[in-house]
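User: I'm putting together notes for a lab meeting next week and I want to include a structural view of one of the chains we've been expressing. I don't have a solved structure, so I'd like a prediction I can at least talk through. The sequence is below, exactly as it appears in our construct file.
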Amino acid sequence: MLSRLTPYLLVLPLISFIVVFTYIPIAASLNLSFREWDFLSPTMPFVGLENYRLLFSSHEFWNALRVTVIFAVISVPIRLGLALLIASYLVREALPARVLRGALFLPSVTSTVSIAVVFSWLFATDYGMVNAFLQTLGLGKVPWLQDPQLALWVLVIVNTWKQLGYDIVIYIAGLQAIPQELYDAAAVDGGGKARVFRRVTVPLVMPTTYFLLVVSVIEAFQIFTVVDVMTQGGPAGATDMLVNMLYRVGFTLFDIGQGSALAVVLFALLIALALFKARVLGRRVHYEA
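Assistant: Thanks for the context. Below is the predicted structure for the 289-residue chain, given as structure tokens.
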């Protein structure tokens, strides 16, 4: 009897951790989304769907959703495209390639706050190094973080620089799993590098691409720290993301009900996106070479 229970006892701590820190908070957020609470009131009156009605009638919510979607649509393809190209070069075992792997991976394990502060200095209008370089070329100062048309692109650059190393390492692992015989056969058939990359590498690395696509989209929709440090959602809401709005509503305005409603909507949106990607892209993913 004990031998049958042993596997379950071994995973019990992990299951308990997941239940306490994942499923219970999800259930609590769902419950709070139907109530009105401000952290201090001893009562939490039930208000039904009122929080969702206020949320969906808010221009602030639709702007944050639009900006978040635009950010994800821009940043994710850039990240994955650059990562695959760089990984295709760094997959070799030469010493310079191994050194570059470590250098490129370093930002992904560096404090996000530190990265955001450094890039805030780099893109500062009056004393930033980027504008100082532009002035040496005879160009004027650019208000990178104050221009609604440019601020979002700066965040894309920072987020790409931060996450690129992780994507490269995962792609390298996927590339190393491709049998060398396939490349040898393609070379015998006279395939050029570009053609081999398009017809051999890209299809066979699709499982890795699919994994990184799911992770990258979730990360893009949950971006918070870089925005909070560099732009605080400005200028004029041009970089206001869903999680920044959630933080502002829940922990600045102390409207826990509406903040929880936004969290539930974001959770449902990510689940829907994951199911959509599984349905559309899952059939194109081949797990055997």
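A couple of points you could mention at the meeting. The chain is about 70% helix and 0% strand. The radius of gyration is 23 Å.

User: Perfect, that's what I needed.
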